[in-house]
Amino acid sequence: MNILHGLILIPAFFLITAVHAQQPDPPGQAAPGEKPEYEAYLFAHMTHQDYGRLYYSVSLDGLHWSSLNEGKRVSEAYQGHPDIAKGPDGRYFMAGNRSDASPDIVIWVSEDLTSWKKHATYTPPLKKTPGYTDALQRIGAPKLFYDEASGKFIMTWHTPHVEGSKEDPESYWASQRTLYVFSEDLITFEGPPRKLFEWEFGTIDVIIRKAGDTYYAILKDETYPTLYWPTGKTIRIARSDQLTGPYSLPSDPISPNFREAPALLPSPDGKVWYLYYEQYPGVSYGLSIADNLNGPWYQASGYTFFSTWDKYRLPPSVRHGCMIPISREEYDTLVKTFGMEDRGE
User: Fold this and answer.
1) 67, 315 in Cβ contact below 8 A?
2) Which residues have a Cβ under 8 Å from the Cβ of 214 and sit 6 or more positions away?
3) Using alpha carbons only, what angle is made at residue 102 by residues 101 and 104, rounded to the nearest 5 degrees?
4) Does domain 40-338 bear CATH number 2.60.120?
5) What are the backbone dihedrals phi and psi of residue 328, each rounded to the nearest 5 degrees, phi first?
6) How high is the pLDDT of residue 342?
7) What digits encode the pLDDT tens for the residues 57-90?
8) Is pLDDT above 80 for 329?
9) How far is residue 236's CA from residue 218's CA, in Å, rounded to a whole number?
10) For 49, 75, 184, 300, which has the most beta carbons within 10 A of its beta carbon?
11) How far apart are CA 162 and CA 335, in angstroms?
12) Predicted confidence band at 21 (pLDDT cuts at 50, 70, 90)?
């Protein structure tokens, strides 16, 4: 009788726990009745089915995202891993390239994010990079950041120096180094590319952001994870008091292994950071949260498919790109122009 009684009580206990289990909502939202510092957000991205082409999703809270344009391309011309920076004149600039093997980086410009036109084409002289004459003709995922202190854009990308092989494909990825170049107008570029980091291990998908007087390079550690390199294929952060370094050794991982393409957002109230990253290839997105870019960070709950547990949501099949704050007027214009997917929520 006691055994039977126990068998009945245990399932009942777990049923009650499951019904009432819930995580607190992420911090960073504006209090009821208060105007948020950041009103809306744009996610410019590709999709798993249409890699390297331009799609849009938007959000009002930085957590819950909806597709625009019925989940179709918003540009037929753009190709690349979209990355957008707002210039000092209020225009938006986006970097792209046709493929990693293409010798050119194409810069696009937009007045209001609804349409893009070609602004310039830049062909970096990779083999003239100081200390990197063995660079291969490969350009991965160019990124843009406008630095108000210098009045210049910095464009970063990754370039390898080892071909790799079918037997050892990871040597190619481990050889990726992050290069950069300056420009005042994204038409003319200053000198040959240079290496961003002094340390010698693979990095890709580097984005630069500034908080206070500190520059942060948010990167993917591109060494394969092992017992002897447990930080491999994770998102890490290095910092410096100068835009081009020297940068500190990267932090402990912000993400689990096999994550890439970091995207950083200030929360609506401006007091918290939301750091997204893709679990590739197109499996899901993770979200880490901190009130300081130096950490500590924690990972929010998502992709459980339980409404009380999922604290953020992205459209299905999104792949990496960039996330930027936009005004509510810009958000309304994008929704009016492209139409928003009705998620029934």
Assistant:
1) yes
2) 239, 240, 241, 293
3) 140
4) no
5) -65, -35
6) 61
7) 999 999 999 999 999 999 999 999 999 999 999 9
8) yes
9) 6
10) 75
11) 45
12) low
Task: Kindly state the DSSP code that residue 211 receives in the 8-state scheme.
Answer: E
User: Tokens standing for 340?
Assistant: 């928003």
- For tokens 């799609």, name the residue: 55
Predicted TM-score (pTM) of the model is: 0.92
Number of helices (H) and strands (E), helices first, in the chain? Answer: 3, 19
Looking at residue 42, the DSSP 8-state letter turns out to be E
Question: Residue 323's beta-bridge partner residues?
Answer: 43
Contact 169, 200 (CB under 8 A): no
- The closest of 232, 144, 149, 211 to 183, measured between CA atoms, is 144
Assess contact for 220 and 259: CB atoms under 8 A.
yes
Lowest mean pLDDT among 30-34, 93-97, 208-212: 30-34
Q: What is the pLDDT of residues 31-59, one digit of tens each?
A: 999 999 999 999 999 999 999 999 999 99
The whole-number pLDDT of residue 3 equals 44
Given 3-state DSSP classes, what are the helix, strand and coil percentages for the chain, each rounded to the nearest 5?
10, 35, 50
Domain range annotation of the chain: 40-338
Question: Is the per-residue pLDDT at 145 higher than 50?
Answer: yes
Q: What span, in angstroms and rounded, lies between the C-alpha atoms of 92 and 89?
A: 9
| Calpha distance 222→150 (Å, rounded) | 30
Instruction: Tell which residue, 138, 233, 238, 154, has the closest CA to residue 197.
Output: 238
Please check the confidence at residue 341 and state whether its pLDDT lies above 90. Answer: no
Could you give the C-alpha distances from 247 to 89, 208, 250, 300, in angstroms and in order? Answer: 29, 11, 8, 28
Q: Which two tokens stand for residue 190?
A: 């200053």
Please tell me the distance from the alpha carbon of residue 174 to that of residue 207, in angstroms, as a whole number.
18
Sheet architecture: strand order including 273-279:
259-266, 273-279, 284-290, 298-299
Residues 106 and 141: their CA atoms lie apart, in Å, by 11
